[in-house]
Amino acid sequence: MLKICYYVGLVFFSTVVLIGIVKGQEVLSTVGRLEQIVQAAESMHGDKPFPALAQSLGYGGKCGLWLSFEVARNWSSFTEAQKQRIQMSLTAPTTQKDRIIGHFHMYYDSSGIDAPSMVTVDSLDVCQQIPGTVEAFVDSVGAIFNYAWTYEIDSLGYPPPPLEADGYYRINIRDESPLLYGETVHDSNPINSGIPQRYKTYIVIDNDFCEVYRPTRGMPALKVTAAHEFHHAIQLGQYGEWPNDLYFYEITSVWMEDEVYNDINDYYQYLKINRPPPNPPTPLGQFATPDIPFTSFSGLLPYSRGIWGKFIEKRFSRDVIRHTWEYMRNSPSLPSMDLALADIGSSFRRAFVEWAYWNYRTYTNSDTIRFYTEGKQYPPIQQRTVIEYNHTARSFTDSVGAVSSVYHPICILASPSDFCSNSPTMMAIVSNINTGASQGYGNFGFVYDLADSGDASYKKLATGIFVRLDVPDPQNWISQESDSLLTIQSVLSDVIVCPNPFYPPRQNYIYFRLPEANQQSATLTVLTPSMDQIVAKEFLLKTTACRQGAELEGGQGLQWDGLDNNQALVPSGIYFYVINVDDKQYMGKFSVIRE
């Protein structure tokens, strides 16, 4: 049996095993490392110090997600005795009682250290068990997991995970390590012969969610664990295990927590550490290290990058995440994300650049209408030291990982005697979008040039300054400047859809206001949430106006009457639009309510 657990923390570890001395620190031999993996598996529910073993293996933090993939990756190298020890340590234990509630068969003890219990958490954050609440806790587990099933399968459209022979999904309740919320355990033998390999699983959850290490405890902790772990069961059972894509399994499971239980917001712990006002929160994870590769499974990064799901859902549709997993039946995560985004007229590289800008629009710089809905709660993104530019040509250098970004504030001085405190400052966001190098963890360097004039290799900003990104592979890089008329910004802000919602047939047209265009016509494509194309048509651009609430929106744009390619009025629902004009592409979504 192999295991996936849910919590936080992992430092990057190369799959290449080194022997000898590296930077003065001894690295475990292959033989020693294999034994440490076995001991880590045994320590999950034993008396050995699991966190210490994790650190000795090159991992930090409090999560054992890596253990499942380490065991699978090294399975052929273990001795037969080691394999038996791993299987014994991770086999579902026998229990005193079991019950079936809805889709789930639960196994638990009614007495002893593993007996479940409801808890109370007082004003001092002291957590205590409530005697005599074993069955009440089991009832809660059943209700919460069945809600997760209904939401993830019936509402979001994911397929159910493989079930036990009795037709139910197994859940074991027991006293987990104080560092664990729960685990998804899978068989050592896959249920298919192809790649990726898929597995039958069962879930283990803590018996009270009361340990002091947890920022979220009691029923809220049980709820996010159910949403998170059940999504792991779907991932492994229906889509398979890609050994190099651990990051994406956690990104989407953390997103799923907040999708199913939006009011709990447990994922905030991966983004920031709050400080007393007026101090801003200390950024963690993605907001502390945006220059580490998107595919990295390091520390809090994959958990903090659950906000990728928040971005995808608001910018495009939550269905894009499910479609990504559907593509992952045949391809790893990056090409699968690219395929899912291509279905709605975008791409992974383009979306990643937009996401880099969204991560700049947080905290006091947030806009909860156009960007993250909870952006005010997110910390400010980590920035480099301010660069001063006094209208004398200069350059600065930096480096980032593949598929990552860095944020450079630039102070534009009117004269050498000026100070940055009274001079305009812009933000230069430099992104490396080289997805082909995403599995490597080296940094890639760049030079950023500023000047008051420049040739065609420079970009002229609204301030009149010329900037250039100097890299050997410009197709894999992009810079965004906060004071310039960005393409990304145009996509997000310059298209106004009115009225939205659109009420046909009472309202004759829905209006898409566009920026000024050189062409006299534009192509409109309308897609359903399942990415079926229902409209693909060229429209003449005209000047018109539409009232959205109290505001009268006017300007150049196109009008659509709500009829599909077959001249039938489209039904109520959410739709996506893609507009192409002047070699630019604008995307967004709108709703239709039939009356």
Task: Briefly summarize what is shown.
This protein is an alpha+beta fold. It has 5 domains: 2-90, no CATH class; 97-239; 243-378, no CATH class; 383-486, no CATH class; 494-592, Sandwich (Immunoglobulin-like).
Largest sheet, in brief, is: 6 strands, mixed
* Radius of gyration over all CA atoms, rounded: 26 Å
How many helical elements? Answer: 13
- Counting helices, strands and paired strands, the structural category is alpha+beta
Taken from the alpha-carbon principal axes, the silhouette is globular
Number of strands: 28
Percent helix range: 25-40%
Q: Give the termini separation.
A: 55 Å
Strand content: 25-35%
Low-confidence stretches: 1-28, 484-493
Query: Which strands sit side by side, in order, in the main sheet?
Result: 1-9-10-8-5-4
Number of domains: 5
Arithmetic mean pLDDT: 85
Describe how the helices and strands are arranged.
Layout: E1 2-6, E2 20-22, E3 25-27, H1 30-43, H2 50-56, H3 65-74, H4 80-90, E4 97-101, E5 104-108, E6 119-121, E7 127-129, H5 134-155, E8 169-174, E9 182-186, E10 201-206, H6 218-239, H7 246-260, E11 272-273, E12 282-283, H8 301-304, H9 307-315, H10 319-327, H11 333-342, H12 348-358, E13 387-389, E14 394-401, E15 404-412, E16 425-432, E17 443-451, E18 459-460, E19 466-470, E20 477-481, H13 487-493, E21 496-498, E22 510-513, E23 521-527, E24 533-540, E25 542-548, E26 551-560, E27 573-581, E28 584-592
Parallel strand pairs: 5-8, 8-10, 13-15
Antiparallel strand pairs: 1-9, 2-3, 4-5, 6-7, 9-10, 11-12, 14-17, 15-16, 16-20, 17-19, 18-19, 21-22, 22-26, 23-24, 23-27, 25-26, 27-28
Helix pairs in contact: 1-2, 1-3, 1-4, 5-6, 6-7, 7-9, 10-11
